[in-house]
Design a protein that fits this description.
402 residues; alpha/beta; Rossmann fold; Alpha-Beta Plaits; nine-stranded mixed beta sheet; 13 helices; disordered N terminus
Length: 402
């Protein structure tokens, strides 16, 4: 037996603790049939190289924007999580944690609707409460951020198995492996990062810094059913029929974004990460031991348009009134008052304090309405992302009717 190889998984090549292996394995998986998902994931790690988990503490980190039923394709599917836990067990992990923190997390959060907590516990894993304790993790290589306050579960784990779902994203166009690690920031603490880093480019640089701080990551992507249109929560499920595996977060994201017909080098996070030359120097370096993205291209996938950022010099010399006028023409959130349930999750997550519940003269919650102050709004779309009623649309010229 080769050194470092687990007794439970003979024949699988095990990677070093922190590997920037350039392989990304893409396998077909037609449905969420349990044995089929497990077989696809096992084959993916056999082809792409598996993390060495023997005796280690592992944190599996699914994507939970908010707690939603599996059919809505908002969260990582519970069967996918089950298969990932089974795979982790087969590779000899000593302790398995599972957890995530939605954009707005209450102390009673249990991931009940998504079925993820139940699936984790049924498989013998421990559910990690991301709100319980946070720790400061240094990021000396960061361009924007030199340290992050993350859930202690990230530090407790020897390795994080990242379980993103392939989706569009209203702010960042695409969300995958690198963006999913933002869930390690507990609950509404995420909002402060949106205020500090408004706009695609600044936010992308912060996400790349985060991925430098959290190095020991292996990714298994749920692309069996993804989301198209106004993701990551307000879009529509789209059958894709794939799973992806890689120890290289950027290589996997480039492959996944190419499959759904994005020029992968134009996605803000991909572009910034490529420019740093840490995970990859160029797209051509990626190795595909199974399927290739160009053979899986979905030409009619409903995407978020990629915004072209104005050069910094233009922004600097442009008169403020013109800048404000142009900002007013950019897409923004708008409340659909017929759908709104007045849960006020949007007002709680809005770090720029641009949203408030306006009470009507009648003392009846049904006649109150959410108001958006567009002078304050930074267009981070966190409100759109976490609204459980899908009552917040992103429109070209938003007008508040509240």
């Amino acid at each position: 037996m080769a050194p470092n190889q687990s007794d439970a998984s003979p024949g699988i090549e095990l990677l070093p603790d922190y590997s920037i292996n350039k392989k990304t394995a893409i396998l077909r998986c037609a449905s969420y049939e349990r044995e089929g998902v497990y077989a696809a994931l096992m084959q993916a790690v056999e082809l792409g190289g598996a993390p060495d988990l023997k005796g280690k503490t592992v944190l599996l980190k699914p994507n939970i924007v908010f707690d939603a039923a599996p059919r809505k394709a908002v969260c990582t599917h519970p069967v996918f999580l089950e298969a990932a836990i089974k795979l982790t067990q087969s590779l000899g992990a000593g302790r398995i944690l599972v957890g995530d923190s939605p954009g707005f997390q209450t102390p009673a959060f249990s991931a009940k609707a998504s079925g993820l907590k139940e699936a984790a516990e049924r498989m013998g894993a421990e559910w990690a409460d991301f709100l319980k304790e946070s720790v400061e993790i240094p990021c000396p290589e960061g361009l924007r951020v030199k340290s992050f306050n993350l859930t202690k579960a990230a530090l407790d784990a020897d390795l994080i198995i990242n379980l993103p779902k392939l989706k569009t994203h209203q702010l960042m166009c695409f969300t995958g492996a690198m963006k999913n690690l933002f869930g390690l920031v507990p609950s509404i603490a995420k909002s402060a990062y949106h205020v500090r880093f408004p706009g695609q480019d600044a936010f992308a640089e912060m996400i790349v810094d985060l991925n430098l701080a959290v190095k020991n990551v292996y990714t298994l992507m749920d692309a069996i059913t993804g989301m198209e249109g106004p993701g990551p929560s307000g879009g529509s499920p789209r059958h894709i029929g794939l799973v992806l595996a890689s120890s290289n977060v950027l290589a996997l994201d480039i492959a996944a974004s190419a499959i759904i017909a994005y020029p992968p080098g134009e996605i803000p996070v991909n572009r910034d990460a490529l420019g740093r030359g840490i995970w990859l120097n160029n797209i051509e370096e990626i190795e595909y031991p199974a399927l290739r993205p160009e053979d899986l291209y979905i030409h009619d996938f409903k995407k978020i348009g990629i915004k072209k950022a104005a050069p910094q010099l233009v922004n600097f010399i442009m008169p403020k009134p013109i800048r404000k006028f142009l900002e007013g023409l950019t897409p923004g959130p708008q409340i659909n008052h017929k759908k709104c349930t007045r849960c006020c999750d949007c007002t709680k997550i809005c770090a720029s304090r641009a949203m408030e519940l306006v009470k009507s003269p009648k003392d009846d919650i049904k006649t109150h309405s959410i108001h958006i102050d567009y002078e304050r709004c930074i267009r981070c779309f966190c409100c759109h992302e976490i609204c459980p009623a899908k009552a917040i649309d992103v429109v070209k010229k938003p007008k508040n009717s509240g």
